[in-house]
Amino acid sequence: QVQLVESGGGLVQPGGSLRLSCAASASIFSISAMGWYRQAPGKQRDLVALITSGGSTNYADSVKGRFTISRDNAKNTVYLQMNSLKPEDTAVYYCNANGWKYALRYDYWGQGTQVTVSS
């Protein structure tokens, strides 16, 4: 059973920082592209940042220069460092793992962690 377990969300003031973590099952982590998505109330779930198994990264324009995604393959964990947070960053953040194994496509989601940016 593949599991993605997120942590690190919370309440932070505008301009503050948070670091999200997502621990994934060892069976898939090293071969997966790992992503962070977010969903605000009444809105669709959007990609925030992505890191491939080879370490290439991609970011939504709204977070470029403020957020950094990284992965530690030894710990089967992906991180999202969020700096200069704004109220519009408030959302539930979800971890995603996707890729191919045994010629089958997989796509797994974590349970989500709430990030609230407010004074």
Kindly describe this structure.
The chain has 119 residues and is mainly beta. It is built from one helix and eleven strands. Strand 4 and strand 5 form a beta hairpin. It starts with a strand and ends with a strand. The relative contact order is 0.31.
Q: What would you report as the Rg, rounded to the nearest angstrom? A: 14 Å
Structural class category:
mainly beta
- Portion in helices: under 10%
Spatial shape: elongated
Question: Largest sheet at a glance?
Answer: 7 strands, mixed
**Number of beta-strand segments:** 11
Order of helices and strands: EEEHEEEEEEEE
Give the amount of beta strand, in percent. Answer: over 45%
Span from first to last CA? 40 Å
Uncertain stretches: none
| Number of contiguous helices | 1
Mean of residue pLDDT values: 95
Concise structural overview:
By secondary structure, this protein is mainly beta. The chain has one helix at about 25-30, and strands at about 5, 10, 20-25, 35-40, 45-50, 55-60, 65-70, 75-80, 90-100, 105-110, 115.
